[in-house]
Amino acid sequence: MITDIGWRRLYRPGYFGRRRDAIVQDLNDKYGNNWQLRWVSSAFPDGLTFHEACIVHYEFSYLQWFKDHPDDVDFICSYGECIDNAMTNVHSGRDYTKQEAFSTHIQDIAVRNVLYFFGRKFEGPSDKILVIRSADSEGYRYGPGNIPYFNPKGIEQPSKCPKWATPGSVEDQWQSNKYIFVKE
């Protein structure tokens, strides 16, 4: 967790989506290298870094879901791999910081990490890829807009849940608890 003195919490920017690069450029233009995103909660009032938040919020929510739904783990393991938004997502493996696509992808990495935690792996043919994104994909139900956040009372209000996500979901928490911090 970041404990640096001299960082000030500004505001909750909400969902970036495909505008991510433009929003980041605007923040860079305004603050230079003196800004960052952090995910705030009552347990972490100074916020968590991207990597820490992926583990604490995404991964733990997915872990809880799959612990309670072992048939879903079997279903996922019947695939050769999973992705979010591009075939290159597989190169991220279990590392949240490897973001090579047009938008941030976390759910595929969280799924890989949870499978690893359970001692499981993808067992299907290598060309059988589970897409965890669009409503017309086999893996849509495992998207962050559909997986419940493990502690719904920890979602900041008013919610910044995107229209495509379910209130109380991992995505709701991710967008609602995301803040811009600047160095003073």
Question: What report would you give on this structure?
Answer:
The chain has 184 residues and is of the alpha+beta class. The protein has one domain. It has helices spanning 20-31, 50-68, 70-77, 107-117, 170-176, and strands at 7-11, 35-39, 81-83, 129-131, 178-183. The longest helix has 19 residues, at 50-68. The two termini are 19 Å apart. The mean pLDDT is 95.
Concise synopsis of the structure shown:
Helix content is 31%, strand content 12%. The protein is of the alpha+beta class and 184 residues long.
Q: What attributes characterize this protein structure?
A:
184 residues; alpha+beta; two-stranded parallel sheet; 5 helices; globular
Helicity, in percent?
25-40%
Specify Rg, calculated over alpha carbons. 17 Å
- Quote the beta fraction: 5-15%
Instruction: Estimate the mean pLDDT confidence.
Output: 95
The end-to-end span amounts to 19 Å
What's the tally of helices? 5
What is the molecular shape? Answer: globular
Low-confidence runs: none
The helix/strand class is alpha+beta
Trace the largest sheet across and list its strands: 1-5-2
Oligomerization state: single chain
Largest sheet entry: 3 strands, antiparallel
Topology:
Layout: E1 7-11, H1 20-31, E2 35-39, H2 50-68, H3 70-77, E3 81-83, H4 107-117, E4 129-131, H5 170-176, E5 178-183
Parallel strand pairs: 3-4
Antiparallel strand pairs: 1-5, 2-5
